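[Meeting: bench + compute handoff]

Bench side (C.D.) handed over the final construct sequence. Compute side (W.E.) agreed to return the predicted structure before the next meeting so the bench team could plan truncations. Sequence as handed over:
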Amino acid sequence: MPELIRRRWRSLALLVLIIAALPYGCSRLAYKERELLYSIQPGIASWYGGLPAGVQQMNIPLEGSQFLHAWWWPAARKDAPTLLYLHGTRWNLTAQVRRITELRDMGFSVLAIDYRGFGDSPGDLPSENSVYQDAQVAWQRLVQLQPMAQKRFIYGHSLGGAIAVDLAQRIAKNDEPAAAGLIIESTFTDLGDAAAAVIHTSLPVRWIMSEKYDSIDKIGAIGMPVLIVHGTDDRYVPSRFSQALYDAANSPKQLLLVPGGTHLNSMTLGSADYARALHQLFGLNATQGAG
């Protein structure tokens, strides 16, 4: 509950800042908005127990001297499907071990990245454009690791879901090598909708925010199967957003609402249904390949 209250007040402060500061410098306003949105927590997550055995750390080069710090965790099976893991706000890779482990236990090889400015990826405060670029570069690295298009998948949690939808749309436009499917969990329609839901306002927040993350306008053009997962008890991002994304997506698609699932535990709580959905939609046997 304290975390929820803190997030609500943060979003409220963001909204008030946007409305009150419009007569002033737009660039400064946008920077403050990004500070509030990404809320990057430095250092190692307090619950991080160390790098799992078998995880390889790598740096994916960007233009100039910058790079993305990444974890590559190959599955025991040589022919395993491979997944790009895109996390949400605040926490870096050290906070993602449980979910990454669960995905690998379902049979995936996992490439997980920190966006520039997160964790050990150097860089300034992220923006919508910069995280989209980071996802594209990471996807190109995943293609090198997994040359078979039918075994390449994208996964995004929370804000990472919006980044994953954008990447999937770019793939559909043939700007990037092909993918076999998209998995998004605990995500939203667009950032304005998410902010308005948290602070319970009918004001048109989306029109005055510089960061858009407009997944609802993109998901109908992704051109690949999509699995959309959401916990019914998510206090931060209501599950109705996943229902709206599902309605806007083209087939083949599947919506998995996990009864009692929160923003963070739907994969754990709904593990059996998750595995079943992966099999039904993508033909993956999530009971094999764990190591």
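W.E. noted at the follow-up: The chain has nine helices and eight strands. C.D. will use this when planning the next construct.
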